[in-house]
Amino acid sequence: MQTALFHLMIQCALWSLMSIGGNMVAVSDIHRYSVTDMNWLTDAQFVAFFALSQALPGPNGMLLVFIGQQAAGLPGAAVALLAKLVPCSVLTYLGAGWLEKHTKTPWVQRVKRSLLPISIGLILSASYILMNSLENNATSLVLTLASAAVVYYTRLNAIWLIILGVVLGLVSSWLGANWF
Prior knowledge:
Layout: H1 2-18, H2 27-37, H3 43-55, H4 62-102, H5 106-134, H6 138-153, H7 158-175
Helix pairs in contact: 1-4, 2-5, 3-4
């Protein structure tokens, strides 16, 4: 268990520093490490933990707490939480003053502009991994793409799509149809 705690601490600290603007940019690496490399989770568990962490109020770092709990119980959850929060908090505390002082310099402006396409690419890769992890039939894939289109093209709150997905899943289970 000490090995799992050490791995959790190191990886969560790295993801903390990598996740400028939120955990979504690191989801593909979190998936790779926790599902493929360490076998702490299955694809389905990862997607379920991700969905739960997005649905719950609070920081997006809850995904790491769920992974830590799965990997090493309550100590794993505590280590993951601390390793997620401490490095980014220290970096923010130390870097905020420097960044405010140097925000108009050309170098800082270039770095800021370069982070946008990198973040978009990482978010797209995370979306691909999440869809690939769970979408095992055409019905699920069509519903996922339709939900993405509704969110993109309308002002409908995504919570309604989540509720609809839960209802469809429950009805499917109740009927024994296994649509999804």
